[in-house]
Amino acid sequence: MLRNPLVWALPLQATLLFWNLDLLDPWGDEWFTLNTVSQPVSQVVPTVAGNIHPPLYFVLLHYWIQLPWTLSLAASTRAMSAVWALVATVVIYALWLRREEPRFQKMFFALWALSPCLLLHARMARSYSMQLVLASVAIYTAPQWAEQPRNWKRLLAYVGSSAALLYTHYLSGLAVAAGVCLTFLIKKRFKLAAVQVALLAVLYAPWVPTLGSVLRRWNWIGAPPPYEGGNVISDQIVRLAYSFVSFSFGQTLSTVTLLLSVALTPVVIYALWRASGTRSTWLPIVLMAAGIAWIGVSRFEQFVFMPAHLLFVLPFFLILILRQMNPLAFATLLVLYAAADYAYFTRSGFLVKPYAAPYKEMADVIREGSRGQNAIVAVDTYGSSSQPLLNYLGDGVGVILLTDEPSARAVLEAARSEPSRPSVIWLWRRTSDTSPGSFVSKLEQDLSAGRAVRRREFVAYTLPERGARRLLRGPGQPEYYYRLSEFR
């Protein structure tokens, strides 16, 4: 029994996953989850359908939060994600690693339990860890079914897990199903491919019209999100580099650990290259599914969300690099993972700043500074979700959302109106202006004229991040992600 790595890996992982689930304020997508699952179940399905999500995760979470929790709503929803991550650990052991050598098992689960990439996404009120479990089962059962096409249990195991994945997450569900189908076609298993498509089409028929509308909204034919660096080549390089860093070293890096990850990068790349010749039944499916998902994410999401949507690839990524990694590199990577986990729990070094944004702290500053005052708050809606801040502000302060230039003019008009002229005006914004024509920056300049100004900045960029931003976007980049300006 002691030889089983789950004996120590599961307790270690559970400690990290469940420790202080209220540590981070809910960010934009999490607020959508919290607001949605709190509704009656009859409203959950149409709500998620209108927000490009399939329903299974949200329906399960709706019933999960009905349990007699003593946790906050955010912590209880995140707890279900943590449970799915623990289930993923058991599934990966049972399906992929049970027959491996004990040494390899210990190395994998040491990295897996400490993985900063998994820690980040498995403590979110999102479906990432649930889809990780379902994708792992689907990728395992597809070749098993192909070995014995007449075995109805294997057929049900694959089709059931694949259909459940489609009802959990569009992108990974479509990518895994397409990867399996293409693998069958390449191997000339045409009958299996046809049966797979037919059965999934029948099981998914109730949701196909919604999926069709989602695909149209994803705009596969039209223009993708703005390219990082100005063109498609630089954009793909940034996406690849960011995803590699996230999977290899995490998204919570200090300056020291970032430098250490740079030193380890050639080692990880070499290990991947050496392991590319591995003859595993899962490798063709994973590669094709990852490629399809990559194209999909590139069409509708910023580069920072690539790792979240590709999380189902993470266990296979770690298996590959460990096949060819020497003990010194493994030990160094383990130290880096522990440091990245420490950075997570100290809310430092986050590459995606909104994940660690102190929304409640910023809202408290506004409420305290507006106490007994006639105040208005102008909120920048470009480039970062403002919903968490608005939720913490409540109804105690008048808010004007900066959605276009007329909304900016409305702020100026309110600032000059008599006799109800506000004694204090707040402007909450990202320091990098992504509004059309930079009207948010112009508004800040106009409000500064003739008024005393106090600026507070939140969530600092690290020194390497500042250098990277200057390289990609030119000089004059800000040192913080958020700015709260007070005009009196």
What features would you describe in this structure?
The protein has 488 residues and is of the alpha/beta class. The chain has 2 domains: 6-351, no CATH class; 357-487. Helices cover 62% and strands 7% of the residues. It contains 23 helices and 5 strands. Strand 1 (375-380), helix 20 and strand 2 form a beta-alpha-beta unit. Helix 14 (255-275) packs across helix 17 (314-323).
Summarize this structure briefly.
The chain is an alpha/beta fold and 488 residues long. Helix content is 62%, strand content 7%.
List keywords for this structure.
alpha/beta, single chain, 2 domains, 23 helices
- Indicate the multimeric state: single chain
Beta strand %: 5-15%
- The level of helicity is 55-70%
Q: Tell me the overall shape.
A: globular
Report the span from N to C terminus: 68 Å
Broad structural category: alpha/beta
Secondary-structure element order, N to C:
HHHHHHHHHHHHHHHHHHHEHEHEHEHE
Count of separate DSSP helical elements: 23
Order of the strands making up the biggest sheet: 2-1-3-5-4
